[in-house]
Amino acid sequence: MKVGLILGGGGEVGVAWEIGVLAALESEAGFEAGASEVIAGTSAGAIVGVYAAQGRAMSELAELERRGQGVPVGAGFPADPAAGGGDDQADTRAIPDEIISALMSTEGTLEERGARLGKLALQAPVSLDEAVFVDGFRTMLGTDVWPSVDFRPTTVNAESGETTLWDRRSGIGLAAAVASSCAVPGVFPPVEFEGRHFIDVPRRPFSGELVRSESLDAILFVGLILPILANNNEQKDELAEQARGGLEVVTVTGGPGVDSIGADLLDHSARVRAVEVGLDDGRRAADAIQNQLGKQSGA
To answer: How many angstroms separate the Cα of 174 from the Cα of each of 2, 134, 203?
Structure first.
């Protein structure tokens, strides 16, 4: 069975929660994230997705999270403000009001909204320059070499508003690709590639594209469902439609424990609790994984 893995956004909290889910699915259901036919990740999901594609053991990552030693998104950024960094992370507390309003707007097509946000992102002052931002991700990932597993971090073209899925054939470095998936306007700088800029704003759902291009038999979607995470909600809706058409779909979107971690998705200290919630949610999903997905073609 050819299984695709889609990992949603969710900030610092989402990184730990997704690691917990995948660690539990690995131990309880034998699901190896890195053996998926394709791994697509958005923002937090791009970070967890590249770890999976690199063959990192989810159980080991989960244990680091439980001990409060999970690597924060800003861990690779310098502490010296003169070098372009903040204390040790970019300041995520003060996204400009006009960007908040644009993020919440439903006026126009998704691409038109993305282009409006792109214009604001290119004008917004941030505490990191682009080179420092990308280099921080290179430090986090330990390499700029794409994994052999088909890994596709998602982003949005700031000029056109179009959703982009990078892969190892795109020509962009791995660190820049993952950074572009996390480039929240007003917090982090847009990432430039071949004269275009890329940012972390709402994407168009893309599971249908993956199913067609890779002839997938099934998709596992792991992503928190919260009002602030519109991408995750819309991706889940698209997958529900595909399931009605016959695709095998399993979604892990969070159980009752999510209420205890959803207040501030950018709070690094909440990751200790988030990984425990993820482990619980993964254990609850183990039977569905075994019954619906069977054996991965790459396992």
So the answer is: 24, 9, 20
Instruction: For residue 226, give Cα distances in angstroms to 48, 61, 166, 205.
Output: 19, 24, 26, 16
Query: 3-state class of 68 per DSSP?
Result: coil
Contact 174, 131 (CB under 8 A): no
Distance of CA 295 to the CA centre of its chain: 25
* Average pLDDT over every residue of 27-31: 94
Give dist(CA 26, CA 249) in Å, integer: 18
Give 178-199 pLDDT, tens digit per residue: 999 999 999 899 999 999 999 9
Distance separating alpha carbons of residues 92 and 80, to the nearest angstrom = 17
Within 142-270, where are the H helices?
174-181, 207-214, 230-244
The conformation of residue 267, written as its DSSP 8-state character, comes to -
Residue type present at position 185? P
Put simply, whether the predicted model's pTM sits higher than 0.70 gets the answer yes
pLDDT tens profile 272-297: 999 999 999 999 999 999 888 875 54
Sign of CA dihedral 251, 256, 259, 265: negative
At 53 the three-state DSSP class reads helix
Q: Which residues contact 17 (CB under 8 A, 6 or more apart)?
A: 10, 224, 254, 261, 274, 275, 277, 278, 281
169: exposed, middle or buried (C-beta count within 10 Å: 0-12, 13-18, 19+)? exposed
